[in-house]
Amino acid sequence: MTHESWNGKKVLILGLGQYPKGSGVSAALFFARAGATVRVTDQKTAKELEGNVAQLKKFKNVVFHMGGHDLKDIAWADLVVRNPRVRPSSPEMREAARLGKRIESDVSLFMDRCPCPVIGITGTRGKSTTTTLVTEMLKASGKRVWIGGNITISPLTFLSSVKDTDLVVLELSSWLLETTGAVGLSPEFSLITNLMRDHLNTYDGMDDYAEAKAQIFRHQNQDGVVVLNADDDYGREWMKEAPGRVLSFGSSKKTDATLTKKDLVWKDPKTGKNEVLLSRAQVRLIGDHNAMNVLAAALLARTAGASTAAVRRVAKTFKGVADRLEEIAAINGVRFVNDTTSTTPDATIAAVKALAPLSRTIHLIAGGADKELEFGELAKLLKSQKVHVTVFEGTAFAEFSKALRKAGVAFERVGSMREAFDVHLAMAEKGDTILLSPGCASFGIFKNEFERGEQFKKLVQKLRK
């Protein structure tokens, strides 16, 4: 654990961010309280981020350079703390590298100072669900547990309260792992749920993206533990490369935890014999992918000290995380499901597959911002199902609509959540599902994917009145 004096040091917060407990503002508060001279910058204006600006206004050692970044601020700084959304290829980060500046993130700063073991979870899909499951399983075992990271809560917000007997569970995006990897830090316990196509607009292909994810175990010592997906090509490769102990999950009986057609099965760590954790029918979450998330979480939680009884109890009762295949309501026999965090075609494929057996027709609200992903497989799946599709206007519209036309899937172009909702509501009948699962990032008409989900939920709630 590092004890470092920041009094009088010049710290640049590169990206204040919009979330009230997010990376940028939490780092700014951390250094302001530590006596550093802090400059805060963001592409957005002070008015656009007025809530986070207000949190810092009382500190005389904080100044704001908002509405764009300035390379002069990079030259000024002793330390650059980058928001995950500021990419390494940006002019600011290239300048920081050229000048040899020290670069950190809120998570790398936290991990260097955390007095207790850190459990890190990454993957393209299932991060938040698995992170929450692991946290609840450990809490149910009597552990004192903190949760943060990519779930809009910076771990710096609770660093001063963490004790050496506690556990910290962090959801880690590839962008956060770039910084922890660069300073040679990995959590003591780690898990990669899966690796699918995502963020290819910010990475040089899948191998580049995969290597960012791999930083979660690359810097472990021989006592470290990584849980990997044996059904995943990258997962199988990583098993050969991990420096610590490897545990595996998947559909193969050779794994430490196996998803069968009927059950979730794991090996007793003492005897090596298989035992049934619970039946698939006992998992309340919808879909095969969620059954796999429960299995992975159970294996990681047990390894980090959770009891089998607590793992089983949470696995049976867990209802899911907001914005992820979240059933908002059933009104007049129509189910409304909010899956706004499905920002890739693969994620929407999983959602449609999970809901198809439960639905007469799926009314899919999709589309948004382009991440240079392919929509062909999603379009083929939609062609094979009874679906009605609306697609938001946005930078992904051209590629998305092209794939739908090629597959012979009819769709309607819409310019707002209200318009999409009304189109589907007019056609929906008893037994149908209206599903928000965009398959794309959020864009102009929404602040972020969470606001996108909020708009959907508000429209559903109005129907209830």
Number of helices: 16
Broad shape? globular
What fraction strand?
Answer: 15-25%
Number of DSSP-assigned strands: 20
The rounded distance between the terminal residues' Cα atoms is: 53 Å
- Biggest sheet, spatial arrangement of strands: 7-8-6-9-10-11-12-13-14
Structural class: alpha/beta
Low-pLDDT parts are: none
Overall mean pLDDT:
95
Name the assembly state. Answer: single chain
Helix content: 25-40%
Rg on CA atoms, Å? 23 Å
How is the biggest beta sheet arranged? Answer: 9 strands, mixed
Protein described:
This protein has 465 residues and is of the alpha/beta class. Helix content is 36%, strand content 21%. The chain contains 16 helices and 20 strands. It has a 9-stranded mixed sheet, with helices on both faces. β18, α14 and β19 form a beta-alpha-beta unit. α6 crosses α10, α10 runs antiparallel to α11 and α12 packs parallel to α13. The longest helix is centred in the middle third of the chain and has 16 residues. The chain is globular. It starts with 9 loop residues before the first strand and ends with a helix. The model has no long low-confidence stretch (mean pLDDT 95).
